[in-house]
Amino acid sequence: MKELWSEESKFGAWLEVEILVCEAWAQAGKIPPEALEIIKRKAAFSVERIQELERDLRHDVIAFTASLAENIGPESRFVHMGLTSSDVVDTALSILLVRAGRLILAAINDLIPSLEKRALENRRTVIMGRTHGIHAEPTSLGLKFLLWREEMLRNKKRMELAIESIRVGKISGAVGTYAHTGLFIEKYVCEKLGLKPSPISTQVLQRDRHAEFLSAIAIIGASIEKIACEVRGLQRTEIREMEEPFGKKQKGSSAMPHKRNPVVCEQLCGLARVLRSNLMPALENIALWHERDISHSSVERIILPDSTSLAHYMLKKIKWVIDGMEIYPDAVAANLEKTQGLLFSQKIMLGLVEKGLTREEAYAIVQRNAMKTWQEKKPLRENLLSDAEFSAVMSASELDALMDFGSFLIYVDEIYKNCGLDVGEK
C-alpha cells in the first residue's frame, strides 16, 4: 500500500494513461505509427526532475508532461493531445483507488477465516452477556466472533461495490464535452485500463464516487473499532475474560510493572476516528463550482492515501489480535457465577407464568427476590425457595431445571446455519 501511493506510482499511472491516449490517437490516424513507437520507447520521467520543474511551473501535470518531453523529443508534441489535466489525473486516480481497494479486500478476506475459526472453537463456550455494561443473560462466546464475521462479510460487499463505483475513467476534456477527442479515446483508454467510461462527466469525475469509497472504508474502520472495543472491555481487570496478545518482552507501563494494557485495541479505536473524520471532507468535495474547481484536490492528496493505508493497516492489526488473543475460561466461568443466579431471572419468571401466574405477578416475585440477592449477597435460588408465594407454585427441583446454563444455547447451531456455517452434529 505504501508503494502504491508513492510519487513514482502516481506518475507511473499518469504515464499509463498518456501512452494509451497516444495509442488511441494512432488508431484514429492522428499520430504516425513511427511517432507512437518513439513515444512508447522514450517516455520516461524522473520524480526529482518533475518536482524541480514544478517549483517554477507551479502545475504538477505540466511539470510531468515537460519532463516527458525532455526525454521524448519532438514527438512529444503528440503527448497530452486534446486532454485536460483531470483526464489524466482522475483516470489515474481511479486506477490507484481500485488497486488500493483490492488490497483492502484481500485483508478482509484474510480476516474472515480468523473470525470464523474463533467462532467455531467457542461455539459452546457459555459466557456472560451484557447490556448497558450490566450482566444480562448468558450467550455463546462463539456468537461474538460469528457476529463480527458477518459484519466483515458485509464490509466485503460494501468494498466491492465501492470499487465498482470508482472503477471509471474520463477522457472528455476541459468541461466534459469531448470536443477535442470524441468518445473513442475514452473508450479505448478505459478498456485497456480495466475501467468503465464515465457516462457523463465535467472536467472531473464526480466526487460522490470517491465519497462512497471512503464511506465504505469508514464503516470498515467502525467495525474494527467495534471488535477492538469489545476486547478492551473484556480485558478489564474486573472481567479479564480475554486479552489481546502481550509479548514476552513487552512492557505495559513505565511506572507499574504489572500492567498489561490493550494498547493495540486502543490504537485501533483511535484510528477509526481518523477514518470517520476523513469521510466528512470527501462528502464536502461533492459540490464543486460549475464544471470544476480544485478545492477537492488538496484534500484528496491527504485523505485518499491516508484512509486506504490506515484501513489496510487496521485490518492487518485486528487479525493479529484475533489470531493471538488469550481467552481465560476460569474467568469466564467465575463471571457467570458472580451475580449468584440473577442471570436466570427471565427463565424463572417465564416458568412461573407457565404455572398460571400473570406476567405481572411473576415479575414481582422474581424482582423482589433479585433485589434481595443484590442487597444481601444471598443466592437467588435460596431467596426464591424461602419466599412463600414462590414455593406455593414451584418446587426446588423445578427451579433447578430452569437454572441450566446450557439451555441458553439451544438455538446456537441454528444461528450458525443462518450465517452459512453448518456445524453438523458437533
Short structural summary:
This protein is mainly alpha-helical and 426 residues long. It has three domains: 7-81, Fumarase/aspartase (N-terminal domain) (Fumarase C, Chain B, domain 1), CATH 1.10.275.10; 86-335, Up-down Bundle (Fumarase C, Chain A, domain 2); 342-402, Orthogonal Bundle (Ribonucleotide Reductase Protein R1, domain 1), CATH 1.10.40.30. The protein has helices spanning 7-27, 33-42, 47-57, 60-72, 85-121, 141-166, 182-193, 208-235, 263-284, 295-324, 329-337, 345-354, 359-376, 380-385, 388-391, 396-402, 412-418, and strands at 126-131, 134-140, 168-169, 196-197, 242-243, 326-327.
Question: What is the class of the largest domain in the CATH system?
Answer: Mainly Alpha
β-strand amount: under 5%
Helical content stands at 55-70%
In the CATH hierarchy, the architecture of the largest domain is Up-down Bundle
Domain module tally: 3
Q: Pick out the low-confidence regions.
A: none
- Order of H and E elements: HHHHHEEHEHEHEHHEHHHHHHH
Which structural class should the secondary elements be placed in? Answer: mainly alpha
Please give the alpha-carbon distance between the first and last residues.
41 Å
The whole-angstrom Rg is 31 Å
Overall average pLDDT: 96
Shape: elongated
User: Biggest β-sheet, characterized?
Assistant: 2 strands, antiparallel
Number of strands: 6
Number of contiguous helices: 17
What fold name stands as the CATH topology of the largest domain? Fumarase C, Chain A, domain 2
CATH homology group of the largest domain: Fumarase/aspartase (Central domain)
Give the neighbour order of strands across the main sheet.
1-2
